[in-house]
């Protein structure tokens, strides 16, 4: 079963850099929180930090 790339249509440069990651990312939305409630799982929220490879 393939996963849906929910980040493909976002405008955030931070989110777009993760659009091809092998993680089932969701942009912040009512649907994301409803899915977490339905599945009874926590929501892990990224604060959007990004740094170049020299800074890491």
TrEMBL record:
Limits of the Spermatogenesis-associated protein 20-like TRX domain: 4-56
SUPFAM superfamilies: Thioredoxin-like
Gene3D superfamilies membership: Glutaredoxin
Matches recorded under Pfam families: Thioredox_DsbH (PF03190)
Superkingdom of origin: Bacteria
Protein name: DUF255 domain-containing protein
Phylogenetic classification of the source organism: Bacteria, Bacillati, Actinomycetota, Actinomycetes, Kitasatosporales
